[in-house]
Amino acid sequence: MSWFSGVQQGPPIEVFALTKQFTEDSFPQKVNLGVGAYRSDEGKPWVLPVVRIAEKALANDDSLNKEYLPVLGLEIFSSLSTKMLLGEDSPALTQNKAFGVQCLSGTGALRVGAEFLARKLEKTVFYFSKPTWGNHRLVFLSAGFQDAREYRYWNGETRGLDIDGFLEDLNNAPEGAVIILHACAHNPTGCDPTQEQWKQIASVIKDKKLFPFFDSAYQGFASGDLDKDAWAVRYFVTQGFELFCAQSYAKNFGLYNERTGNLSVVMNNPSEVPAVKSQITLTVRGMYSNPPSHGARIVSHVLSNKELYNQWRDNIKTMSSRIIEMRKRLREELERLGTPGSWNHITDQIGMFSYTGLNEAQSEHMVKKHHIYMLKSGRISMCGLTPSNVEYVAKSINETLS
Ligand code: PMP
């Protein structure tokens, strides 16, 4: 007899399973376009130089110890993070309507925010884009939401945003529903609304009394400019919205495994901030009590020092420029080979990912025949492309489609 006999085998998590398969593959030209993690031109993981500098400084700082952080994390970290997101002169900050909570990377920030919304505000319905990052649904359902719904986002025919479908679905959403919005560099499509479209989206969210929950996993990574990539969130703030925003430092600081993130909370009434903070404190206390310090100290060290802040911006530029260059190279190669279809979407899309338009069978063919690991949805991580493998990848796509 075992208590566990009835446990069913769960489905594998596609992106992690793919990485395992990739690692076990002995084919010399194999390419991993699955996982969303930055790689250098040599295809190697990259620790940002500014992170190395910060880590050395922290290692030499004998005043630091291993005592617990407060439940809501390192105060300097969360306030600098919220400032980075909203902009220094944001009305929400000057009027004390915004604060941050240090969380376990972007996923943890989504989870803490969702727990609060489900358990304290008794929200049940949430919407995510079709398609979206593979974890939104699980995080929100695990946090206590009951009703997972999709809004239309991607139009496979035009390989662009289905803004009419998007707005119509928001229009039909019940009052109070939580709407997950990708702040920039939409994962997996690489396709963001224009500023005009964001204004339309904001207007429906306001009219229908919906709650915007931004997911900002790629600030700086999309355009190379932190302010530009925060435009949508800042626009909503200037329009007087109350909102949540989950921020991740996995990509823009390369702190993937340090689990460093922040939940920014923007409210209308500063006098209600202490009560909300106290409830989020209980939410966190009941989950993991308090967060780890290392990543938060690295980020605070950099964001509080002007010179290091500028170096970080340069590091972000290095990463985003390499990705933009790889988009160009891939498109050029595909067009040079006369690969069936049009390829402008590769360079029109933004951020870490590209939705190639390859269907499930074609994507599986890429894995099986060419040892190029990519998701079944046809999503590729641009970071896995390098000057030395881009031709091979283009040739393989060409063979798959011809
Ligand atoms: N949201 C989106 C859209 C993402 O792509 C990711 C990372 N893949 C995350 C959130 C969270 O990542 P992390 O928890 O590593 O910060």
UniProtKB/TrEMBL annotation:
Reading the lineage from the top rank, the first entry is Eukaryota
Q: What is its EC number?
A: 2.6.1.1, 2.6.1.3
Query: Which metal ions or organic cofactors does this protein require, according to UniProt?
Result: pyridoxal 5'-phosphate
What is its subcellular localisation?
Cytoplasm
Keyword set, alphabetical order: Aminotransferase, Cytoplasm, Pyridoxal phosphate, Transferase
Q: Which GO terms describe its biological process?
A: aspartate biosynthetic process
Reactions the enzyme catalyzes: (2S)-2-aminobutanoate + 2-oxoglutarate = 2-oxobutanoate + L-glutamate; L-aspartate + 2-oxoglutarate = oxaloacetate + L-glutamate; 3-sulfino-L-alanine + 2-oxoglutarate = 3-sulfinopyruvate + L-glutamate; L-cysteine + 2-oxoglutarate = 2-oxo-3-sulfanylpropanoate + L-glutamate
Any one GO CC term of the record: cytosol
Outline the extent of the Aminotransferase class I/classII large domain. 29-397
Protein family membership:
Belongs to the class-I pyridoxal-phosphate-dependent aminotransferase family.
Q: Subunit structure, per the record? A: Homodimer.
**Matching PANTHER family, A to Z?**
ASPARTATE AMINOTRANSFERASE (PTHR11879), GLUTAMATE OXALOACETATE TRANSAMINASE 1, ISOFORM B (PTHR11879:SF55)
What is the recorded name of this protein? Aspartate aminotransferase, cytoplasmic
Whose protein is this, by species? Rhynchophorus ferrugineus (Red palm weevil)
Q: According to the entry, what is the taxonomic lineage of the organism?
A: Eukaryota, Metazoa, Ecdysozoa, Arthropoda, Hexapoda
